[in-house]
Design brief:
Length: 435
């Protein structure tokens, strides 16, 4: 098991897991590391001259100045995403977790600030791109190619506190974390967007626009603050909401070999290796809702052991398809008016009444755009009169999904509607799963 040349938190992860159930000086040392692990902070709480922001600006400038022969070069780091990132399958969460972690390692190595941790943009409470990302070319956090302006506001219907709170209530990893792929499938195989990816993740990429709408999105520093917030959503989903990940070996044992550590050396890391990162590698200053997070440094060995076990063991998560209600054939919806699809749901209601744990999933397949426009779609069931003014608090509201629009073509095939990648050039149909 290899996490980096120097090891994860200076010890191998397998050793770390054993220590959490052990005793003595080694356990005490590990508990100290847990207590002192770097803290990821809400970027809007940091003053413009805060040491974390100063270090981040310094790191970006140094990475931009590195030769292209150095894999830590800023463009090379963006190309990791361009060439290897999974979307529309269950690997996207752990892959991006590792991506953030190793970017932090590079920043620490270049700046010498060992307590550095990436800040995040909490778009559930701050609807504008944070002020630190604006200015001019003298600010390394500024990026010239954005569609949004400093005054642009996100939609609270998609990424507001209430909308995201409801999304985090989803307790099934297969719905929350995007579709499953086999152990031998290409890691970029597109299956379906889950609720986290298809809604706030996609929407923010589209909202910021410009470079954020294409595969080299990490060239815009906003990318890192956005994905750090996505990571907080996953951490919150696990540790605050108590929802387990899948224990499917095709997910747990998948290995990524796309990253380099702080010194630029190639690393190999499995999904299983990433699962304890929030426990051992970093901490957040607050929950998604902005509430205080329990200090793990004051927890007992038994409590930490239980948390570690929960993160590592996961749960068997699968759906038995009891019945399908299908409406096949092309359908065009005008943006200016709501579209209605009629399905005979009487039989489905009977199944739901008979099976107490039955769930009705809505799968929209082959969804595509015929032109570039940034927008999101809200979906209602049994609400034929739904319109733009219908609130998301309506009982018929099912969920939302968003596209990545912008001037981009699909270059690296794995078929999705939203991130500018697909099986064919142009806009390929995507699949969205709503619960």
């Amino acid at each position: 098991m290899s996490i980096s040349r120097r090891g994860f938190l200076n010890i191998g992860s397998t050793t770390a897991l054993a220590l959490l159930t052990g005793c003595g000086e080694a356990t005490e040392s590990l508990l100290t590391q847990i207590k002192n692990r770097p803290q990821r902070r809400d970027i809007t709480t940091l003053g413009d001259n805060h040491p974390i922001l100063a270090a981040w600006r310094d790191a970006i400038q140094q990475m931009q100045a590195l030769p292209m022969s150095d894999p830590r070069n800023w463009t090379n780091q963006a190309n990791i995403h361009n060439l290897h990132c999974p979307h529309g399958n269950w690997l996207w969460l752990p892959w991006h977790r590792a991506y953030l972690y190793y970017l932090e390692e590079i920043c620490r190595e270049l700046t010498g600030m060992q307590e550095f941790a990436l800040p995040y943009w909490n778009w559930t409470k701050d609807p504008q791109i944070p002020a630190v990302f604006w200015g001019d070319a003298n600010n390394p956090l500024w990026h010239q190619n954005r569609t949004a302006t400093a005054n642009s506001m996100t939609s609270q219907n998609v990424v507001g506190a209430s909308a995201v709170d409801g999304l985090l209530d989803e307790d099934n990893f297969m719905v929350f974390g995007s579709g499953s792929i086999g152990a031998n499938a290409n890691q970029r195989t597109f299956v379906a967007y889950g609720t986290l990816e298809g809604t706030p993740h996609n929407y923010i990429h589209s909202f910021v626009g410009g470079t954020m709408s294409i595969f080299t999105a990490p060239l815009d520093p906003v990318f890192w603050a956005h994905h750090n917030m996505v990571e907080l959503c996953w951490v919150d989903w696990n540790l605050e909401r108590g929802h387990p990940n899948t224990n499917d070996s095709a997910w747990m044992q998948r290995v990524f070999e796309d990253f380099v550590d702080g010194e630029g050396d190639p690393v190999s890391i499995s999904v299983e290796d990433t699962l304890l990162m929030p426990l051992l590698g970093y901490r957040y200053d607050a929950t998604v809702a902005g509430n205080a997070i329990a200090d793990l440094g004051v927890l007992s060995e038994a409590q930490l052991g239980a948390m570690r076990q929960f993160l590592l063991l996961g749960a068997t998560i699968a759906f038995e398809n009891m019945m399908s209600l299908e409406r096949r054939g092309p359908m065009t919806v005008e943006l200016s008016s709501p579209g209605v699809v009629k399905l005979d749901g009487e039989r489905a209601l009977q199944v739901l009444a008979q099976q107490g744990d039955a769930r009705l999933l809505l799968i929209l397949d082959g969804v595509s755009l015929d032109h570039d426009e940034d927008f999101f779609v809200r979906v209602f069931v049994d609400k034929p009169d739904a319109g733009p003014s219908t609130p998301t608090t309506d009982p018929g509201y099912v969920g939302s999904f968003a596209f990545f629009a912008g001037a981009h073509v699909m270059m690296h095939g794995h078929g999705s509607a939203g991130h500018g990648h697909g099986d064919e050039p142009g806009r390929s149909g995507g699949r969205f799963v709503l619960d």
